[in-house]
Amino acid sequence: MKLSILSTFVFLVTLTTSVVGQAAFADDVDDLMARELDHDEAVYAREAVEDTLVLRGLEEVRRRSEDHLQFIERSLELLERRSKYACYQDCVRRFTGANLTNCYRKCDKSWGPHGRK
């Protein structure tokens, strides 16, 4: 019987200590859990900022690519106009009359009506 009273006493002391300990440190546990949530939120916020920076970088690359493409298109159009003009100049130097007209048609056929080959 002494053993069961002793074990009951130990059980009650342990239970009381546990309940009192939980009540005393409940705020600390809540703060600890809140900090972990804040840490997760900070991680998510940092990832969101990194994602935003990556998107900005991609937008910058896309914008530069579009600018470069426009530059290439303008350069190509200029080259085509110069080539067509050089073809016409060659016709003027070499031919007259109907032959000149045929040469112009040949240039138009080579470079197209709008300068594109």
Task: Show the helix and strand layout.
Layout (H helix, E strand, L loop, with lengths): L1 H23 L1 H69 L2 H15 L6
Helix pairs in contact: 2-3
Describe the structure.
The chain is mostly helical and about 120 residues long. It has one domain. About 90% of the residues lie in helices and about 0% in strands. Helix 2 packs antiparallel against helix 3 (about 95-110).
Q: Structural class, judged by helices and strands?
A: mainly alpha
The count of β-strands is: 0
Q: Would you tell me the overall average pLDDT?
A: 77
Estimate percent helicity.
over 70%
Largest sheet: none
Contiguous helical run count: 3
Question: What is the radius of gyration?
Answer: 42 Å
Order of helices and strands: HHH
Number of domains: 1
Low-pLDDT stretches: none
Shape: rod-shaped
End-to-end gap: 110 Å
Q: What is the strand content? A: under 5%
Keywords: Signal
Summarize the structure.
The chain is an all-alpha fold and 117 residues long.
Give keywords:
117 residues; mainly alpha
